[in-house]
Amino acid sequence: QVQLVESGGGLVQxxxxxxxxCAASERTFSTYAMAWFRQAPGKEREFVAxxxxxxxxAYYRDSVKGRFTISRDNAKxxxxxxxxxxxxxxxxxxxxAAVKTxxxxxxxxxxxxxxxxxxx
Length: 120
Known about the structure:
Elements: E1 4-7, E2 10-13, E3 18-24, E4 33-39, E5 46-51, E6 58-60, E7 68-73, E8 78-83, E9 92-102, E10 105-110, E11 114-119
Parallel strand pairs: 2-11
Antiparallel strand pairs: 1-3, 3-8, 4-5, 4-9, 5-6, 7-8, 9-10, 9-11
């Protein structure tokens, strides 16, 4: 089972940037699609971005399009989330997920999360 460790969170002012990293333990990392989710206090966890196994296809929730970029380096077993033009509403715990699809089912493996706080 893949293990994930996020890093790169912190406190930033509105308009600033952060880059999150997620390192995977699994040597078959390149076989997983990877995704970022976030959860703000009192809210449900929500999808942020997803990238396919090869890194040539990605999609985003509407509110982060044009500001966030997901990428991956399969040689380093790492996925990234570059976050620019941050807004206070981006404040949340950000979770990395490895996604394994088997037939019509998808299985998610989660990291422990990293806190991102955007001050106004």
